[in-house]
């Protein structure tokens, strides 16, 4: 009996390919296994806070997966990684442990400068007003802070809160004193800062917060507002954007477009039914703030869920004046990928 096998019948063809040379061999392998233009998996970091609502909805409703499939990418795996600060996100991005960071635009601007443009913004996610809060009854305005006080920020010197604190200090004490309050700042994630502020015995008695943490903190009658970021600068500031490395973006044109489309769809969901979006956020994050309160936050001046980036040049100019970055962007588009250049950012 003669035995046949698929291996033996393939060998003559394989020998012919080898004799024909490597170019033909590669062509044959390419026909056998069509190349995929985009990655089959994307890893995205996210921080706690209501400004990340579109990203939370994108995860819960699998919107990136939906738009990736519609773009012909098949089943794309999206891995969401929770981090407590933009600094941690930047480290993870540079080390290759994640592909996209969802954080404040200041963290992107810092990496954009330090990598000479290798890191750029993919799209906006959201803007919310941020409040500087304190439980020190003697502090009514910035000039009242003293060495007795400690101000919690998600990242010192480079977070959106840190930059806005310096901008406020310039207005209060003069341009030469932008860093006057920096020695009082400490790095602390928002949930930990809420716990610190609630304790009269904790040395951290102030917090440059963001929704919904600031609303929760203000329920304590011992805590009051010192300033509001939107009132300070008079414009919305993107304290949540997606950003990535150029290599990832160039390798994943369809996936990048699918991610932007997913955030656009999430934003449309928020606009169409704010209460449902708030309820979905509470269910996904175990947030203690009532959904109705979150809807009220959405109505506050300076709150905006959009893929359009805001306040980029405001922060970039400050960074350059402070010599935090070496090169001053001439336009916000210098720091973002072309996929959003058609939007009215600033």
Highest CATH level, the class of the largest domain? Alpha Beta
Average of pLDDT? 89
The class by helix and strand makeup works out as alpha/beta
Low-confidence stretches: 1-35
Main sheet: strand order: 2-1-3-10-4
Give the SSE order as H and E letters.
HHEHHEHEHEEEHEHEHEHEHHHHH
CATH superfamily of the largest domain: Periplasmic binding protein-like II
Helix content: 40-55%
The CATH architecture of the largest domain is 3-Layer(aba) Sandwich
Question: How much beta, percentage-wise?
Answer: 5-15%
**Any idea what the radius of gyration is?**
24 Å
Report the sheet with the most strands, covering strand number, pairing sense and barrel closure.
5 strands, mixed
Number of helices: 15
CATH topology of the largest domain: D-Maltodextrin-Binding Protein, domain 2
Inertia-based shape: globular
Distance between the termini: 78 Å
Per DSSP E runs of 2 or more residues, the count of β-strands stands at 10
**How many structural domains in the coordinates?**
2
Protein name: NLPA lipoprotein
Keywords: Lipoprotein, Signal
InterPro entries: TAT_signal
Pfam family, one: NMT1_2
């Amino acid at each position: 009996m003669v035995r046949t096998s698929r291996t033996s019948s393939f060998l003559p063809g394989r020998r012919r390919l080898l004799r024909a040379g490597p170019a033909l061999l590669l062509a044959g392998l390419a026909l056998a296994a069509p190349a995929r233009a985009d990655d089959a998996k994307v890893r995205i970091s996210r921080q706690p806070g209501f400004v990340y609502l579109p990203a939370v909805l994108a995860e819960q409703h699998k919107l990136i997966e939906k738009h990736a499939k519609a773009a012909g990418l098949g089943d794309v795996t999206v891995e969401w990684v929770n981090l407590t600060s933009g600094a941690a996100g930047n480290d993870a991005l540079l080390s290759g442990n994640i592909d996209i960071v969802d954080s404040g635009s200041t963290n992107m601007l810092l990496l954009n400068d330090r990598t000479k443009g290798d890191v750029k913004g993919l799209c906006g996610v959201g803007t919310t007003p941020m409040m500087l809060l304190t439980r020190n009854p003697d502090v009514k305005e910035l000039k009242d802070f003293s060495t007795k006080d400690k101000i919690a920020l998600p990242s010192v010197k480079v977070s959106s809160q840190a930059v806005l604190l310096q901008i406020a200090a310039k207005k209060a004490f003069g341009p030469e004193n932008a860093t006057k309050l920096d020695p009082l700042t400490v790095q602390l994630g928002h949930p930990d800062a809420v716990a610190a502020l609630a304790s009269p015995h904790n040395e951290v008695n102030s917090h440059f917060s963001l929704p919904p943490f600031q609303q929760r903190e203000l329920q304590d009658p011992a805590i009051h507002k010192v300033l509001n970021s939107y009132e300070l600068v008079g414009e919305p500031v993107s304290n949540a954007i997606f950003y990535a490395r150029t290599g990832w973006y160039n390798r994943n044109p369809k996936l990048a477009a699918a991610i932007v489309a997913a955030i656009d769809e999430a934003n449309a969901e928020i606009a169409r039914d704010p209460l449902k979006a708030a309820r979905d956020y509470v269910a996904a994050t175990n947030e203690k703030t009532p959904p109705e309160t979150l809807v009220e936050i959405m109505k506050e001046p300076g709150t905006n869920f959009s893929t359009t980036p805001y306040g980029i040049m405001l922060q970039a100019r400050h960074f350059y004046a402070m010599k935090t970055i070496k090169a001053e962007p001439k336009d916000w588009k210098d720091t973002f990928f072309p996929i959003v250049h058609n939007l009215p950012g600033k």
